[in-house]
Amino acid sequence: MIQPKTIxxxxxxxxxxxxxxxxxxxENGVWKHxxxxxxxxxxxxxxxxxxxxxxxxxxxxxxxxENRPGWAIADFATLMIGAVDVPxxxxxxxxxxxxxxxxxxxxxxxxxxxxxxxxxxxxxxRTAVKYIVAIEDIHDRAxxxxxxxxxxxxxxxxxxxxxxxxATVAADLATIxxxxxxxxxxxxxxxxxxxxxxxxxxxxSVFDWSRGEGxxxxxxxxxxxxxxxxxxxxxxGIGISYCPSFDDLPMVLKEVKPHNFVSVPRVYxxxxxxxxxxxxxxxxxxxxxxxxxxxxxxxxEVQLGKMPNSLSWRIARRLVFNxxxxxxxxxxxxxxxxxxxxxxxxxxxFADVGIRxxxxxxxxxxxxxxxxNRKNKYRLGxxxxxxxxxxxxxxxxxxxxxxxxxxTSGYWNLPEETQSAxxxxxxxxxxxxxxxxxFLKITDRKKDLIKTxxxxxxxxxxxxxxxKSNVLVAHAAVIGDRRKFPSVLIAPHFPLLxxxxxxxxxxxxxxxxxxxxxxVRSLFEGIVAELNKDLAQFERLKRVVLVPDELSIDSG
Length: 556
Hints:
The radius of gyration is 24 Å and the shape is globular. The relative contact order is 0.08. The chain has a 5-stranded parallel β-sheet with strand order 4-3-5-6-7, with helices on both faces. By secondary structure, the chain is α/β, with parallel strands linked by helices. A hairpin with a 7-residue loop joins strand 24 and strand 25 (about 485-490).
């Protein structure tokens, strides 16, 4: 693939690859496939419709949808006519959705379901939205059926639209992605074609993606990380299988068996917790513990990218490790973690079972990748070396500053926020970091540093990650700003805790009753007490509060 200058260069390289199964999705339990020509045809037909509705260069369209081929087609069609798309998380409330629609001035809204349709209809009169397009087969007078539009004419190259796409330049705005602002008001990050295309090009030097087959797109495409990886896969002609529901991910991975897997740390943590839960008692536990001891002896080899060949490791692999690999589909050759810090203990555990996780780091404002571990440059506990086209330096207060072609020019309608985000041309990431021997290590968010009433600064992230290394802990949040001492909120991993409760004769009728039990409270206080031994006096957690559900956006 030539060096892309725009997202449309990426689109056309995927079209020219002419893959018969470029995009796949599950409908009524059956996998259906779009060829690259199918995607081109649908994109062109939708682009024609957008122009007929008066959408022109620079206008905005919004996409409120879970992952599916229609998301990507709406994206490509918008960009093909020079317009700008605005992804919106499907889980946002009506008020949050209304704010983004109003602030962006979107005139078309693509929606995936009756729920998303109702959300937009409820706020439409207070926004600039003129057309609502239903991505799925929804028949409602309030929306245009996208399937009908996409199939309005058979495959044929459209020279006029191709020329329009070719006229797009790197400096043209491609997307506005809203992130939560420091004041609670979302900020629209402006990303150009050149921002995103340069970052895709930077990722090409990290892995030989062309060797892989298959990828499951399940991280929300409203986030730049998922979109970036989809662009990479599309550019290389690697088939993308969409998984709209996180609950379906285990099943989809087993069916697709992807060679490439990109996820957030929580998914890796859940795989580990489930493996530990299944091997909790008896002979299974003894075999499991023995296999992990064998794996630990060969950890260094796995981290160097070598496959251990000792008899004990091969037996451990057959009895235990292959079953854990099956949770990722069984074929994953490249496993990447991003979006949040991966605990060192989690990375070590996966290395012990023969899976090397490549941790990376980036921000929406950097399109997103700043740094990532790679096959020949790998160091657990870091986010790897910066990409070749990204410059990094550490400010006097420890904050990471970056610059390069993938860095945003600023925020939509927020000139003051834009000005304060830069320092002499360097973007201020807001992360505290260290750069050692070319490897970048992120220690915490600058704004998350806790200052106790005694004037001591505490970095909560390493403490939270250490707690999450225990399989009974799903989430941990350290609090203590301007207080005498730090405390911690813990959301237990309830499947494992319920098994523990049965084994220890703890009766309960709900999660709230379970965490109120004296034995359970003592269990988690013991976990925290063990961690406190390794912390400085001012960092030690003095109070433990258990919460009855795992933390989620849905629950607030």
